[in-house]
């Protein structure tokens, strides 16, 4: 008992390391930690915003039907680049689902993953997510190209990149919802 009292912190540390080594516990632990440290995304200052002019990007729904990103021009857009194997991506999905439930009819949501359709369908079904998931059919516009997952862009009606966030975030925060409401109120 004396040994446990004097070495409890080392035992906890070793237990955490062991949990991170075991594949079945590593991913849920990483997702939980990402949710714990996720904050509301920061807005890009107006003087540092880039504007997207090239909306030419072919996508397809996971059922194979084509979608052209040009449909998003003049609309408020949330574009999320993600994967089912990415713990930070998985960590932010519940906040996106809540946001989609409330803003899905007013904001254009694009959740884009290069994974196979059947893998995406299984993931969405298991988690009970209803937001639209798309796959790229052509190269992404250069301004939206990222080497990191997840990466999320929020575009104004004018095509300004208002938010460019790499890593997990809390997209269902009151401050982000306020920003979305402001973007929706702007004229194109």
UniProtKB/TrEMBL annotation:
- Superkingdom as given in the UniProt entry: Bacteria
Which Pfam families has this protein been placed in? AhpC-TSA
Q: Which residues form the Thioredoxin domain?
A: 44-185
| InterPro entries noted in UniProt | AhpC/TSA (IPR000866), Thioredoxin-like_sf (IPR036249), Thioredoxin_domain (IPR013766), Thioredoxin_ResA/DsbE_sf (IPR050553)
Any one GO molecular-function label of the UniProt entry: antioxidant activity
Q: What is this protein called?
A: Thioredoxin-like protein YneN
Question: What is the species of this protein?
Answer: Salinimicrobium marinum
The gene for this chain is: yneN
